[in-house]
Amino acid sequence: MEREDYMRLALAEAEKALDTGDVPVGCVVADAAGNIIGRGRNRREERQSAVRHAEIEAIEQACQAVGSWRLEGCALYVTLEPCPMCAGAILNARIPTVVYGAKEPATGSCGSVINLFEERYGFRPAIYGGVLAEDCAAVLRDFFEKLR
Predict the structure, then answer these.
(1) Dihedral of alpha carbons 107, 62, 10, 125, sign
(2) Which residues contact 133 (CB under 8 A, 6 or more apart)?
(3) In 1-148, where do the E strands start and end?
(4) Tens of pLDDT along 120-136?
(5) For 66-121, how does the pLDDT look when each residue is reduced to its tens digit (9 = 90+)?
(6) Taking the model in full, what pTM does it have?
(7) Which of 145, 111, 148 has its CA nearest to residue 24?
(8) How much of the chain is helix, strand and coil, in % rounded to 5?
(9) Which end of the chain has the lower number of beta carbons within 10 A, N or C?
(10) DSSP state, 113?
(11) Rounded alpha-carbon distances, angstroms, from residue 4 to 9, 35, 66
């Protein structure tokens, strides 16, 4: 599969977040063979927890699937640029590839506010932004327009 195919899977997860009134962000983690081993979506409203971001859910599920906190050889695909908390989880899980869709000007930690992956943490994943960016941004834009 191509990056766009994985991002479409992440978008499908984002759509599920709409059912619970959560901001529609979705994420998938693929192993080195390309198999999806983790899926997640925002569940902050559903679970009333500040840490229930899509990336956290997908990383937790992927760790359980491989039986390790190290997700070496994996790739994370998320519809919105990761925040500082999620960037920290990505670093801690040693995920070598991060692909995101839309930029996040308020909290984006892949360059919009800061690029935490360029800091001296001893591990630097490859970052690919803008994959299906318009599709990812449209889901978010529609969600926030309906709130107003």
Answers:
(1) positive
(2) 101, 102, 103
(3) 26-30, 36-41, 75-80, 97-102, 126-128
(4) 998 899 999 999 999 99
(5) 999 999 999 999 999 999 999 999 999 999 999 999 999 999 999 999 999 999 99
(6) 0.96
(7) 145
(8) 45, 20, 40
(9) C
(10) S
(11) 9, 15, 24
Q: Name the token pair of 104.
A: 């996040």
Give 39-58 pLDDT, tens digit per residue.
999 999 999 999 999 999 99
Which residue has tokens 């956290």? 56
Cβ atoms of 82 and 10 within 8 Å: the answer is no
Among all residues, which ones are annotated catalytic?
A: 55
Count, residues in the chain = 148
- Pairing mode of beta strands 75-80, 97-102: parallel
